[in-house]
Amino acid sequence: MLLGIGVCVIIAFLATYLGGLQRIIGGPMIGLFIGMLVANIKPPEGDFKNGTTFAAKKFLNLGIIVTGATLSFKEIVGFGASALPLIIFNIALALGIAYLIGGKLGVSKNTRTLVGGGTSICGGTAIATLASIIEAKEEEMAYALTAIFLFDIIAALGFPYLGRALALSPEQFGVLAGTAINDTSSVVAAADTFDKLLGDLSMSTSGLTGGNLAVIVKLTRTTMLVVLAIIFTFVTINKKRKSLVAQGNNGSSSINHESNESVGKVVLRVFPWFILIFIIMALLNTIGVFPESTAPFIKKLSKFLVTTALAGVGFKINFKDLFTKGIKPIMLGGCTWLGLCISSMTYIFLIMPK
């Protein structure tokens, strides 16, 4: 078992290093693909397999908890606050598109949730967080991550040139990149390219570049993960409670739906406590409990833990399944991302001042 965990940790170190060499593909995504590659060369067995499974679940929960310490509701001020209505609308839009079109494509509900949440919030971190809450299967998580990854690369590479071609102001590009590119590293990469394309013209009236503004909007958007996590936690608890009550009515469980005490016990049993700690960590960071000097280390630690977990997830995925069963989730990811792009562009040209 320790060998399986150790291999996932080693993969995480390698993925983190490779992710640091460029800004387009983040370490967590690289970790997932390395895990998949190793597993398809030599499938895990016995205690080694148990170790990768442990890493996939436990390191993920721990990574999510630490991620909470990187979030702060203070981000929702200034320029970020001005984009908040669009961010909230895009979250609802992405989930709506994912559920409607995903249903037509025959994509599982969990995958639809992950694609919608990942596209609208912050890609891999949102998918990892929601996957733990709704107890999605490893393959559902991998399909969603792959879908998000493909269109994130397209956005990171193409948006700077699209923004230049459309003569977007720094403020307009900041909103577009901050709301329609998922991974923070990809937002930074696109923002840097845009600033270089504009040169001296990249400075906004506020004294910030289009790249700076894009990161501010992205951080505001990432903070909404806390809200989405709370919503899906209660949805999941309610779903489990109803399921257990139904079992009790059928005589297959001792739970009595008329007993408030029994219902309370059900809630305590199914509540994902790591999410509560995640929320507490975010609140503590908001009020300044964690010194600013520790922020870089905490961010690196949270990403490393998630990367280790995704390496473990990769050991569960077969390439053949990814290129057969994963096609529909990828199509869904494209439709959802396109919906967000149209929404953000509409806001930029019809509502937002240039």
UniProtKB/TrEMBL annotation:
UniProt-annotated location(s): Cell membrane
Presence of keyword RNA-binding: no
Alphabetized UniProt keyword annotations: Cell membrane, Membrane, Transmembrane, Transmembrane helix
Name of the featured protein: Sulfate exporter family transporter
Family assignment from sequence similarity: Belongs to the UPF0324 family.
InterPro entries linked: UPF0324_pro
Domain of life where this protein originates: Bacteria
Lineage, opening ranks: Bacteria, Bacillati, Bacillota, Tissierellia, Tissierellales
PANTHER family: INNER MEMBRANE PROTEIN YEIH-RELATED, UPF0324 MEMBRANE PROTEIN FN0533
GO cellular component, one term: plasma membrane
Major subcellular site: membrane
Coiled coil: none
Membrane topology: Multi-pass membrane protein
Organism: Anaerosalibacter bizertensis
Spans traversing the lipid bilayer: 24-42, 79-101, 113-134, 140-161, 211-235, 266-289, 331-352
Pfam families xref list: Cons_hypoth698
